[in-house]
Write a structure and sequence with these properties.
single chain; alpha/beta; 5-stranded parallel β-sheet; 14 strands
Length: 792
């Protein structure tokens, strides 16, 4: 409700005067249209003005309405009755009833609906109508009692006077109040501009209203209710403001016709005429307000929907921008991680290249004592373990970055499985377990698969089974199923180990998660199953597990592998002895690397075999030597100063005299991008660092078409050493307290302290102590732990 503008006296006075004049003018107009003239008004417009004024301006305006109502009521009474005192008293009662009626209606409407929500929807229109039907009883009651008290109304006419008084006030409120309230708002309600622009349609509507109104109220044809569709038309097409004017226009035509006695409502008695007229007015007012409210509600719903759509689009744009920013940040972070891993891989592999390279050189050709040979073996074993850890971390990073790809090749499948099972059988036998490999007769021969990745998965699963099994055995089942020209192959690894609890089953496939006995968790990093799971999914399968705690575990997965016919039988693993040279002419090899230790590894690997090895410190020197000497093969690093390996390879391939020289790119940066880029630059093969001697020799054999010369003496000596001695002593373990102490030293990696302890053991435990000393000399901590654990 608007506050009293008392701070502006002139404005307040002007509002008071305007309201009083409007109220009195509406009353005089009603009296001119009264039936009979001067007394009964079908539509008492001042009642609507009073209610609308209080709702728009506030309660402070009531004195203006009260005075105008007193004058408007007392004056015509005094003129028609010539009883001044009675007229003043009756007018005072009518004025008191009018202001109380308006105040009561305004308070109820604001409390139960709200001034801004009166005509927003159909339920509010019905509430407005109900409240006014009741509140409009106040003025007729007080006014009729006042007129009856001064003798202006006979007792027999009291009820009829009250009823016509009430209908007039109600009609005035229903017609006038909505018109003022809708047009008097500071901001207009929602209207489409096209409604206001349809002037031709409005003119056509007005002609229809005048036409039907003339028939009904000028020539007394009973077609007055045909005006209702026209009112609905106005509400639907012209908006709430013009819909509020339409009932006023029709009401004016109806009242004018009734006054002239040419309306279809005119009857023999005044009461019948008023009842029909006022009922018609109420119907058209309520109908128009309800339709207008429905239209307004629909428009508001459409506007809310449009706003919601706009908000949604804005939110979607904002969210898209956030996701784009998050994606960019993630890509930047992923790129930074990849660069970090690539750099760390390069930095770690570079020293490992020297460690593993010279370990291979010393084991292959240098005369060493037994202790020296064991030391070199330990160096090679530890270096390989570190290299495997680096490879696992890089594989996991590639999987997370979706950069791990499969590279299927044609494989002789039985030979592939035999190679995997032979490696696993050796480890199982070392632990005293039985390893079984079962495959059906329908095993395919030629098949396309990524040999490296599938063997990685199988070795990890079988290795875990062996690690967590103390008694019994491990079984590998291979079940092929023919599907057209392809095969669906099920791999199943079953053990009789300690099993996995239901709580641990959800964790075992997570990176760096290790479950089970804490004593066994020192044997890995917890990356194997996570990597295996991702590789199997990349192959189109899913790794599953079933376990009964204390009874054993079964892992299985199924993959679809295509059959191939153009395959070459894979070379079976065989001990061909030590390579001492090659047959044929002497071959010249150029090694280009900026680090002397990397060049030294290859020089010391190849020189004893009869190769002539040349060295270059960068790509510029390597290119110069290539042009001058034209070596039989080039081994080049990729990251070098002045001119890197990529540039050197491109330059060699661009010159006719050198473009056919085979080249091997060797780098500690082993990401697929580095490999692909080196091949595109002109390399024939890629050799990762640390350099594996066997892999290097295989590439040399491939690109130079070499026939190796072998020395079988060392192989025979090894076989003799591996043969079990006759009369081997039975191993008797020491007491449990000593076993626990030895096991704790093994878990802590304190090999020297462990050797000292077993030296002090008594004679019955000599075989046990001797086996401990053998494992300790090889620095095989895992084997030490497993050996002692089986006796605890």
């Amino acid at each position: 409700m608007v506050a009293n503008p008392s701070r502006s006296p002139l404005r307040s006075a002007a509002i008071v005067i305007v309201v009083a004049i409007a109220y009195y003018s509406a009353a005089k107009l009603g009296q001119y249209l009264a039936i009979p003239p001067g007394f009964i008004t079908p539509v008492y417009a001042p009642s609507g003005i009073a209610l609308a004024t209080l709702l728009l301006l506030g309660n402070w305006i009531w004195p203006s309405i009260f005075l105008a109502a007193w004058v408007a009521a007392a004056w015509p009474l005094a003129v028609s009755t010539h009883l001044l005192n009675a007229s003043l008293i009756a007018g005072l009662g009518i004025a008191i009833g009018s202001i109380l009626q308006a105040l009561l209606g305004a308070v109820c409407l604001q409390r139960w609906i709200g001034r801004e929500q009166l005509f927003h929807n159909a339920p509010n229109v019905f509430r407005f109508t109900g409240i006014e039907l009741l509140s409009c009883m106040v003025s007729p009651t007080i006014g009729c009692i006042s007129m009856y008290g001064v003798g202006l109304i006979e007792p027999a006419a009291f009820a009829n006077s009250w009823f016509t008084f009430w209908l007039g006030d109600t009609a005035g409120v229903l017609i006038i109040a909505p018109l003022i309230l809708i047009w008097g708002r500071p901001q207009p309600v929602i209207e489409h501009s096209r409604h206001q622009a349809r002037c031709l349609e409005m003119v056509l509507w007005l002609l229809f209203v005048l036409g039907f109104g003339g028939l009904a109220f000028a020539w007394a044809y009973p077609v007055e209710y045909l005006l209702l569709p026209l009112l609905v038309w106005a509400a639907l097409r012209f908006g709430p403001r013009w819909a509020a004017i339409a009932p006023l226009l029709v009401t004016g035509l109806a009242v004018a016709g009734a006054v002239r006695q040419t309306s279809s409502f005119n009857r023999a008695t005044l009461n019948e005429t008023l009842l029909l007229l006022q009922a018609f007015i109420a119907v058209i007012a309520i109908t128009t307000m309800v339709v207008a409210a429905v239209v307004l509600e629909r428009q508001r719903a459409e506007a809310a929907l449009l706003n919601a759509k706009a908000d949604l689009e804005t939110k979607v744009e904002e969210r898209t921008a956030q996701l784009r920013a998050s994606k960019e940040a993630a890509e930047i972070a992923n790129k930074a991680k990849s660069e970090f891993l690539a750099n760390m891989s390069h930095e770690l592999r570079t020293p490992l290249n020297g460690i593993l390279g010279y370990a291979q050189i010393l084991r292959a050709g240098e005369p060493l004592s037994e202790r020296g040979q064991k030391g070199v073996a330990i160096i090679h074993q530890c270096g390989n373990h570190l290299l495997n850890l680096i490879n696992d971390i890089l594989d996991l990073a590639k999987i997370e970055a979706r950069k791990l790809d499969l590279h299927p090749t044609s494989v002789f499948f039985p030979a592939f499985l035999e190679g995997v099972t032979e490696m696993c059988r050796v480890r199982a036998e070392q632990k005293g377990l039985e390893f079984t490999y079962l495959a059906t007769d329908q095993l395919p021969e030629g098949i396309a698969l990524d040999e490296k990745r599938l063997s990685q998965v199988l070795l990890n699963l079988i290795g875990n089974a062996i690690k967590f099994t103390d008694t019994g055995g491990v079984t590998l089942y291979v079940h092929p199923q023919r599907q057209g020209d392809d095969y669906r192959i099920r791999f199943e690894i079953k053990d009789t180990g300690i099993g996995i609890t239901p709580e641990q089953l959800d964790q075992i496939f997570l990176p760096f998660e290790q479950v089970g006995d804490l004593r066994r968790q020192t044997e890995g990093t917890g990356l194997g199953l996570a990597i295996s799971t991702q590789i199997v999914e990349l192959m189109g399968g899913k790794l599953a597990v079933q376990s009964h705690y204390g009874q054993g575990t079964t892992f299985w997965f199924e993959v679809d592998l295509p059959k191939v016919t153009a395959w070459t039988e894979a070379a079976r693993i065989s001990n061909d002895g030590t390579i001492t040279g090659y047959s044929g002419r002497k071959r010249r090899i150029l090694v280009a690397d900026d680090r002397w230790e990397n060049r030294s590894v290859i020089v010391n690997l190849l020189t004893p075999l009869g190769f002539d090895v040349l060295e270059a410190q960068d790509g510029v020197e390597g290119l110069r030597i290539t042009q001058a000497v034209k070596p039989d093969l080039i081994i080049t690093d990729l990251m070098m100063p002045n001119l890197d390996g990529y540039g050197m390879l491109r330059a060699i391939r661009q010159q006719p005299v050198t473009q056919h020289i085979p080249a091997i790119a060797s780098s500690a940066s082993i990401f697929e991008s580095n490999q692909h880029e080196s091949i595109e630059a002109g390399a024939n093969s890629f050799l990762p660092k640390p350099v594996d001697a066997i892999a290097l020799l295989e590439l040399l054999k491939k690109h130079l078409t070499l026939n190796w010369v072998y020395d079988y003496t060392a192989l025979d000596a090894t076989k003799d050493q591996d043969a079990p001695a006759e009369g081997t002593m039975k191993i008797i373990p020491p007491p449990p307290n000593i076993l626990k102490k030895l096991y704790l030293l093994a878990m802590q990696g304190r090999v020297k302290a462990l050797q000292t302890e077993v030296k002090a053991l008594d004679t019955p435990y000599h075989a046990f102590a001797q086996h401990i000393q053998t494992l300790a000399q090889s620095f095989d901590v895992e084997a030490l732990q497993a050996f002692i654990e089986q006796y605890i």
